[in-house]
């Protein structure tokens, strides 16, 4: 039945599905893009590095519950249809994102702030767990057999484009309001704006028709009575679920989140790049690499899905540590030529540490190099009434790269996102071809969201945590995604078949 869908109709299907999915990803990723600022809002001022780790843990919680959303909404999708299920997920996602923008800070309501945000992140995770499987299944069940990789790859662009949109809105808002206002209250605007996008998408999705394959199944009375039981109690189908998880989506997930989210976190928090610089680098990398989702999705229609995905994993395993070592080397101020550098007169700030008789004296000097690079050199002196003047602490942050290094970093981010397009572009077609129509939504959603939501989504949190251990190096966190990708590569190489153009009408 999917073979005779007119071409203009399939693009309407893709457009309506993709817009809603893009908005859901935008909603989901704003939080990660603002983790540092949100951490200052949700936790005490003296929380230090633990505020970032706790915020990343809240961010990760949204990923952990995605498999449960896949089960709940996957079951609904196989019982009542694709259209209304992922319409519901869109409403839940948009509503919870909007409410995060309204929650008061720690100063106002104490630890109720992070608890409320955690609850809303869990709702976001549940909603996203039901969204992707519905959108990918809906498009695949409209697409002609020999172009399934091409058409579903448009859905695959939405995750990265959602990240791109979130970064763009954040940078524009910050530049309009200024850093201080954005840090105090302006960070809420990207969350609040999402409600407008959601309303538009709901209007468009209300006009969509049900998937032709599901409609045919429903008219013939062949809808699954218990999708969960059929998906996971039947040995052959459960074997496919496990193979999809450990041989594909697990490795694909860590490649996705390392190349985009951990890369941003590393540049900002480890390399101490300027807020705008770190985001501009990612924005350019995403802009250059995004078309390759469609390139690799379309190519998989010709050569199969397996080896494209596994090659992306292999390249990540080989090149991650060298790439991140370059990031470290090129932002190390101790290796920079300071000859002829201009030192701006230091700005001194004094503040009393809340709850103590101690005072902080912060002296910030902006250093500008001959090549146009700059950074802030901050000296922090603590005056304690008990212990006198404590040893000064020097902090280097807000590094702005010279033009040549900036574009070098864009190239390295582009390469990482190119690997994302290799593993992610063909994955939707690969998953829908594994499972029969009547339990497809449930069966494909679970391995996808465990692989991406748990293994992939935990990359920023686990990698940052590993790098904070005593005796670790800034690159130690990379062993987590490298290890997971290696395991998936081995399993996928041995057990995955290189199928393409499978008949999914049964």
UniProtKB/TrEMBL annotation:
Taxonomically, which superkingdom? Bacteria
Major facilitator superfamily (MFS) profile domain: residues covered = 13-500
> What InterPro entries does its record include?
MFS_dom (IPR020846), MFS_sugar_transport-like (IPR005828), MFS_trans_sf (IPR036259), Sugar_transporter_CS (IPR005829)
- Topology relative to the membrane: Multi-pass membrane protein
Membrane-spanning regions, if any? Answer: 21-43, 49-72, 84-103, 109-129, 150-173, 185-204, 240-259, 279-300, 307-327, 409-432, 453-472, 478-496
Keyword set for this entry? Cell membrane, Membrane, Transmembrane, Transmembrane helix, Transport
CDD domains listed in its UniProt record: MFS_ShiA_like
Quote the PROSITE patterns the UniProt record gives: MFS, SUGAR_TRANSPORT_2
Location of the protein in the cell: Cell membrane
Tell me what this protein is called: MFS transporter
Could you tell me which species this protein originates from? Pedobacter punctiformis
Taxonomic lineage: Bacteria, Pseudomonadati, Bacteroidota, Sphingobacteriia, Sphingobacteriales
């Amino acid at each position: 039945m999917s073979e005779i869908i007119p071409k203009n109709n399939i693009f309407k299907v893709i457009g309506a599905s993709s817009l809603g999915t893009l908005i859901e990803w935008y909603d989901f990723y704003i939080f990660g893009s603002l983790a540092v600022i949100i951490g200052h809002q949700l936790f005490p001022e003296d929380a230090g590095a633990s505020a970032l780790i706790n915020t990343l843990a809240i961010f990760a919680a949204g990923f952990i519950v995605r498999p449960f959303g896949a089960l709940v909404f996957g079951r609904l999708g196989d019982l009542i249809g694709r259209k209304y299920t992922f319409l519901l997920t869109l409403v839940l996602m948009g509503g919870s994102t909007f409410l995060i923008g309204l929650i008061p800070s720690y100063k106002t309501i104490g630890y109720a702030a992070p608890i409320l945000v955690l609850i809303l992140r869990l709702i976001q995770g549940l909603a996203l767990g039901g969204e992707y499987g519905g959108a990918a299944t809906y498009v695949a069940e409209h697409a002609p057999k020999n172009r399934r990789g091409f058409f579903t790859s448009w859905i695959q662009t939405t995750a990265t484009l959602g990240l791109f949109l979130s970064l763009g809105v954040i940078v524009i808002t910050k530049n309009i309001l200024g850093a201080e206002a954005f840090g105090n209250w302006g960070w809420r605007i990207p969350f609040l704006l999402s409600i407008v996008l959601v309303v538009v998408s709901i209007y468009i999705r209300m006009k969509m028709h049900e998937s032709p394959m599901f409609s045919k199944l429903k008219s013939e009375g062949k809808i699954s009575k218990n999708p969960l039981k059929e998906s996971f109690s039947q040995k052959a189908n459960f074997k496919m679920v496990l193979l999809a998880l450990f041989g594909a989506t697990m490795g694909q997930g860590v490649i996705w989140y390392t190349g985009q989210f951990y890369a941003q976190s590393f540049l900002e928090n480890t390399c101490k790049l300027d807020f705008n610089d770190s985001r501009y680098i990612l924005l350019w990398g995403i802009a250059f690499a995004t078309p390759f989702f469609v390139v690799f999705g379309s190519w998989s229609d010709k050569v199969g899905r397996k080896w494209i995905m596994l090659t992306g994993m292999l390249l990540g395993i080989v090149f991650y540590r060298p790439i991140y070592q370059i990031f470290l080397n090129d932002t190390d101020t101790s290796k920079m030529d300071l000859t002829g550098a201009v030192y701006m007169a230091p700005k001194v700030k004094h503040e009393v540490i809340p709850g103590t008789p101690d005072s902080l004296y912060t002296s910030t000097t902006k250093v500008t190099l001959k090549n146009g690079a700059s950074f802030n050199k901050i000296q922090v002196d603590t005056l304690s009434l008990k212990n006198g003047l404590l040893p000064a602490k020097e902090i280097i942050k807000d590094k702005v790269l010279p033009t040549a290094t900036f574009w070098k970093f864009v190239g390295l981010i582009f390469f990482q996102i190119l690997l994302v397009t290799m593993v992610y572009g063909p994955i939707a077609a690969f998953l829908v071809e594994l499972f029969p129509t009547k339990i497809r939504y449930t069966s494909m959603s679970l391995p996808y969201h465990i692989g991406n939501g748990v293994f992939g989504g935990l990359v920023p949190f686990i990698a940052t945590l590993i790098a904070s251990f005593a005796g670790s190096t800034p690159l130690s966190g990379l062993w987590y995604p490298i290890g997971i990708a290696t395991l998936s590569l081995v399993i996928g190489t041995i057990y995955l078949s290189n199928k393409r153009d499978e008949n999914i009408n049964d």
